Amino acid sequence: MFRTVTAFAALLLATASAVAEDFPRAGYEGAINGQSAPFVGSWSLGYPEPEGTIVAETIIGCDDPVLIEATGDAALGFKTPAMAAPALYELSELVDGRTTWLPADNSESVIAIWLTPDSFHFYVTNMGKADWENPQLLRRCPAE
Fold this sequence. Notes:
- The chain is mainly β.
- It has a single domain, classed as Lipocalin (Beta Barrel).
- Helix content is 14%, strand content 39%.
- It has one helix and ten strands; from the N terminus they run αββββββββββ.
- It has an eight-stranded antiparallel barrel.
- The longest helix is centred in the first third of the chain and has 20 residues, at 2-21.
- The termini are far apart.
């Protein structure tokens, strides 16, 4: 019995670790971090599809997209259709390969990791720690 419980616990830990590591912790080679220009545009927002699953879901589509506008070289406004005004952020590359969004209102920061020039994962932090298992996925909407 003990051996079965131990094996099951090890399997659960291995599965949890694999899920957490499915998503990248750094952007692609050559990604521009800490600057607002690459983020500017219209974006769909959803959840990524981890390898081996079919659970990707779009929450905000390109018909009424998330809007990101530069408010400076390393500052931006982020607005969803449900927001009256954009949330304002200062950008920094605190860790190589990532852009940290520091909110003007001192709420929790966000970590952005570029997957391609037209998509990135968006990790909300809690007490300064990213929830690496639950990124949101933003994809650039096609130009009209």
